[in-house]
Amino acid sequence: MLGDRWSLLIIRDLMVRGYRTFKEFQQAGEGIATNILADRLQKLINVDIISTEQVPGDRRSIHYRLTEKGIDLAPVLLDLLIWGARHEETSAPGAVINQLEANRESVLAETRRRWKDRDLTPLIPKFQKENEL
Amino acid sequence: MLGDRWSLLIIRDLMVRGYRTFKEFQQAGEGIATNILADRLQKLINVDIISTEQVPGDRRSIHYRLTEKGIDLAPVLLDLLIWGARHEETSAPGAVINQLEANRESVLAETRRRWKDRDLTPLIPKFQKENEL
DNA sequence: AACAATCACTTGCAACTTGCAAGCAATTAA
DNA sequence: TTAATTGCTTGCAAGTTGCAAGTGATTGTT
């Protein structure tokens, strides 16, 4: 399931960037085609990594959200981020990475807290992985 | 680079199972086609995650080995294993997983030690992830 | 009320990637 | 000398991806 080009990026956007809607993923800059995006979202739902919710006040829109199983991927994503940074496949500044690495546990706790509280502020001020995570 | 069906499995086999040769990967049970295997190995070499060495005493054979960058993926793989186990996509017994989780740091240290020393004994007595890691 | 815009998708199709089976060169084993 | 082994490569059918252009159900604007 995670063995494709887009799924982990979607999960990352949900987890650390606070993205929720189809449109946000689509415009995320990575350039995923809408048919593929729809397909990946559905597959992630099928394996219970994400779920959907109605948006109160706009019946066109849907909010995607990580499930418990989905948020449990946080350690993986964090390690991948750190790895990418260490080996320079990221645009995250070195200092930020060192912080993340030194405070692994609290970063993970904060990530989970944000999820629970539906806090949509980006976890850190934007980082990107060039080619794949 | 890691966003495909096979690359992480190859890395895992190198890291925790002690596989080294083309043939070992091919027979690993996951059923990768030889053309794809050759392609993935080459791509992993290109991004400096693995490297090759001559086998002394058999000039037909080649040993693949993780680079420093490759072994640095250990935390990612370990977390992915733990995640898969927690959400039942693994055949690793629960007790083993709990051990891995509780001793994360020492497991990682041991993994790195095995790599340095070229210790080929499997890290734990075989575990598999059903569909993708 | 009528019309335009927005949102989350679908559809059609060409281009690329994968998987399967067979084959091959260079050794090494019998 | 012949057979087997190792690490690939090749050809081709089948599957997946990406692009562009819709579509239907709202919601916003005049």
Task: Describe the secondary-structure layout.
The structure is a homodimer of 133-residue chains.
Chain A: H1 7-17, H2 22-26, H3 34-46, E1 50-54, E2 62-66, H4 68-71, H5 74-86, H6 94-102, H7 104-117
Antiparallel strand pairs in A: 1-2
Chain A binds a DNA duplex (30 and 30 nucleotides) through residues 5, 21-23, 26, 31-39, 58-62.
Model description:
The structure is a homodimer of 133-residue chains. With 133 residues, chain A is mostly helical. Chain A has one domain: Arc Repressor Mutant, subunit A. Chain A has 7 helices and 2 strands, in the order αααββαααα. In chain A, strand 1 (50-54) and strand 2 (62-66) form a beta hairpin. In chain A, helix 5 packs across helix 6. Mean pLDDT of chain A is 89; it is low at 125-133.
